Amino acid sequence: MNNSLSSNRLTGLTLLIAIAFFMEQLDSTIAVTAINNIADDLSVHSTTITMAIAVYIMTLAIFLPIGGWSAKKFGCKNTFFICHYIIYCRLFGLWL
Predict the structure, then answer these.
(1) Which residues contact 79 (CB under 8 A, 6 or more apart)?
(2) According to the 3-state scheme, what is the secondary structure of the chain?
(3) How confident is the model at residue 5 (pLDDT cuts 50, 70, 90)?
(4) Is residue 3 packed enough to be buried (19+ CB in 10 Å), middle (13-18) or exposed (0-12)?
(5) pTM, to two decimals
(6) Contact at 8 Å (CB) between 46 and 39?
(7) Contacts of 58 (CB under 8 A, 6+ apart)
């Protein structure tokens, strides 16, 4: 079995990673730009929303490498299902 990636597959993988990073940056930019509107809608001070967005971005910075490590160690499919299981169990627990 050949472990090297073909040129087309490598290009596709690179494009996929670039799109994922672009989406993450776009998400952070939209959240930071909308701070005042979010604060007005929730009737809280904008400093509170700024702290929430800062914590959100720091959490992403922490868990992104952990997700990559776990995908390498346990496999992408297993990591995906475990993460979704944890998220859905938490959401179901909050719903009860």
Answers:
(1) 67, 70, 71
(2) CCCCCCHHHHHHHHHHHHHHHHHHHHHHHHHHHCHHHHHHHHCCCHHHHHHHHHHHHHHHHHHHHHHHHHHHHHCHHHHHHHHHHHHHHHHHHHHC
(3) low
(4) exposed
(5) 0.60
(6) yes
(7) none
Q: Flag whether pLDDT at 44 surpasses 50.
A: yes
Distance between CA atoms of 88 and 32, rounded to whole angstroms?
27
**Tokens 């776990």 sit on residue:** 70
Summarize pLDDT for 13-31 with one digit per residue, the tens: 888 888 888 888 888 888 8
The two three-digit tokens of residue 15, written as one number:
């494009």
List CB contacts of 83: < 8 A, sequence separation 6 or more: 67
